[in-house]
């Protein structure tokens, strides 16, 4: 199932709806890269709230997406890791040390705003700065 | 083939035209350092749009250039990494974590402007601030 990607101002929001197959992950990566160019996106939020299993391939793929988009000038935040998934990831040694993570979509947008990479068209937690 | 370097206000723009040989890379580094001094440049944009292969030597050289110029007071932004090059770099572990990257020349100039290091002579995405 492909991952829908919304554009909101200079941010792309990818909402993962179910466990990612390998081909879904590649498609997501290609789609995000293409849209970063087309929309000149400055930030990407990948919402994984719906995921209840994060294997090492999916985790590595998310990391690859985050690093690739950063090389192209867009910061990525992973949001919505559930406590169970977070626990499993830590047990597996997948700590996402080099990535941005946030509690949920709202916090993810606020994080991108705080980093100051985004214009005024985005929703900010502190009142739309 | 040497890399042409343009001066625009307090920014130097180096446009890499083809894959960098080792000697080209050294020449670029020397040229940039010399011009940072001569023109008192505050920012440098290295445009690698034309590059379709980035090996680890070229990546390390770009990082060296960025760190050297920062020590001399000029911020460097790498722009124009293609999705393919970005993917290959991430696979090789070359994530440029400690460097500024942007989508293209325009975004690179905007990034330098946002960092507040530059005067008003530069092109800004948000209207030349």
UniProtKB/TrEMBL annotation, chains A, B:
Classification via InterPro entries: Bact_StressResp_Reg (IPR051932), STAS_dom (IPR002645), STAS_dom_sf (IPR036513)
Segments forming a coiled coil: none
Domain of life: Bacteria
STAS domain location: 1-112
Alphabetical list of Pfam families matching this protein: STAS
CDD domains recorded: STAS_RsbR_RsbS_like (cd07041)
SUPFAM superfamilies per the UniProt record, alphabetical: SpoIIaa-like
Record-given protein name: Anti-anti-sigma regulatory factor (Antagonist of anti-sigma factor)
Source organism of the structure: Mycobacterium rhizamassiliense
């Amino acid at each position: 199932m492909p991952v829908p990607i919304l554009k909101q101002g200079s941010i792309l929001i990818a909402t993962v709806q179910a466990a990612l197959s390998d081909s879904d992950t590649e498609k997501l990566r290609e789609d995000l890269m293409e849209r970063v160019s087309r929309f000149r996106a400055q930030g990407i939020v990948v919402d994984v709230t719906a995921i209840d299993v994060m294997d090492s391939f999916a985790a590595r793929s998310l990391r690859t997406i985050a690093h690739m988009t950063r090389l192209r000038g867009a910061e990525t935040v992973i949001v919505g890791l559930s406590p169970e998934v977070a626990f499993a990831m830590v047990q597996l040694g997948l700590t996402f040390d080099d990535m941005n993570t946030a509690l949920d979509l709202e916090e993810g947008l606020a994080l991108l705003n705080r980093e100051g990479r985004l214009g005024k068209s985005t929703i900010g937690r502190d009142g739309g700065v």
